[in-house]
Amino acid sequence: MEYLIGIQGRDFVLVSSDRVAASSIVAMKHDYDKMFKLSEKIMLLCVGEAGDTVQFAEYIQKNVQLYKMRNGYELSPSAAANFTRKNLAEYLRSRTPYHVNMLLAGCDEHEGPALYYMDYLAALAKAPFAAHGYGAFLTLSILDRYYKPDITREEAVELLKKCLQEIQKRFILNLPSFTVRIIDNNGVHDMEQISVSNL
Amino acid sequence: TQAFKKVIEINPYLLGTMSGSAADCVYWERMLAKQCRIYKLRNKKRISVSAASKLLANMVAEYRGMGLSMGTMVCGWDEKGPGLYYVDENGVRLSGSMFSTGSGYGYAYGVMDSGYKYDLTVKEAYNLAQRAIYHATHRDAYSGGTVNMYHMRENGWIKVSQEDVGDLHHRYAAEAQ
């Protein structure tokens, strides 16, 4: 029901998520933000079981902030991704596993831009583009077809719009609007929301 | 007909609604009331609606998977103005301007959405709220009894009315004539 997508370019990562917070058949909110800012240059996009998403994501968020307070500098995106995965893996075989699917996107001065795909079984993969949700079945092939490693920001936004148009056209559930953010060496930047009207 | 109070008066500036398991709601919202009081004693100011709802969400999140059943709305007025949060047994916490919970929530959403605007007058809001609850009790087998209505204002809440749904039914039928 929920949708996450990330596209990495040469010096940026573009991420987008839908804005519906649903409970059974009802959409309780149409402006819900599924992205969590872990640090100045790292965003965690998190979907999955109700309650688990916010609880787990905020736990990771606070711990990443704690690292910064203790050590004076921020975790790199790869370190944050591995930390998140480790936690998820430890909870997986406990009495209270967290059923969450995530995309971690960040930009590092040394490593460059990075996009990590993580699922509820604590699998972690660094990828040039990734998506979660039923919408991923419809859009991953579009990303396969049109993505190139040196994609520019404008091209990435156009590619994102292609994906969201496909969701509007073929996905049975209504996802009317999407939050869009771009992460580069200068930090996280909010972009104009994409909704049915400006697709 | 029964009159069970599904709105708990936490303090003069905070209200909590109850749906799901009555036992869970009554217990956890009383625990929330306790935490809010302790907050006020320690910090010499009233707790914000955001913090109060977060306390409740975090309390029940610890009992994840243990079978709690609770769908509640925490409503209050703090320095940021009016606040409404939906909190449930899964640890979901959502801020918004309108929510409906309980077995008849879908029916209530239908009536509320068709009559809702952000700039409703107070009188219009009273009528819409009563209508939404009434229509939900009409269709949902598990809802009924009395409609307790509260209004959260800048200086605290007031209890607006307590009406039996049977009386509402006859009133609306008469109005339709």
From TrEMBL, chain A:
Component of the proteasome complex. The keyword Nucleus applies. Keywords: Cytoplasm, Nucleus, Proteasome. It is found in: Cytoplasm; Nucleus. This is Proteasome subunit beta. It comes from the Eukaryota. Its main location: cytoplasm. Belongs to the peptidase T1B family. Non-catalytic component of the 20S core proteasome complex involved in the proteolytic degradation of most intracellular proteins. This complex plays numerous essential roles within the cell by associating with different regulatory particles. Associated with two 19S regulatory particles, forms the 26S proteasome and thus participates in the ATP-dependent degradation of ubiquitinated proteins. Gene3D superfamilies: Glutamine Phosphoribosylpyrophosphate, subunit 1, domain 1. One of its GO terms (biological process) is proteasomal protein catabolic process. GO terms for cellular component: cytoplasm; nucleus; proteasome core complex. It comes from Scyliorhinus torazame (Cloudy catshark). Pfam families: Proteasome. SUPFAM superfamilies: N-terminal nucleophile aminohydrolases (Ntn hydrolases).
From TrEMBL, chain B:
GO terms for molecular function: threonine-type endopeptidase activity. Keywords: Cytoplasm, Differentiation, Hydrolase, Immunity, Nucleus, Protease, Proteasome, Threonine protease, Zymogen. Signal peptide: none annotated. GO terms for cellular component: cytoplasm; nucleus; proteasome core complex. It is found in: Nucleus. Its main location: nucleus. It comes from Scyliorhinus torazame. GO terms for biological process: cell differentiation; immune system process; proteolysis involved in protein catabolic process. Pfam families: Proteasome. Its EC number is 3.4.25.1. Coiled coil: none annotated. This is Proteasome subunit beta type-8. It catalyses: Cleavage of peptide bonds with very broad specificity.
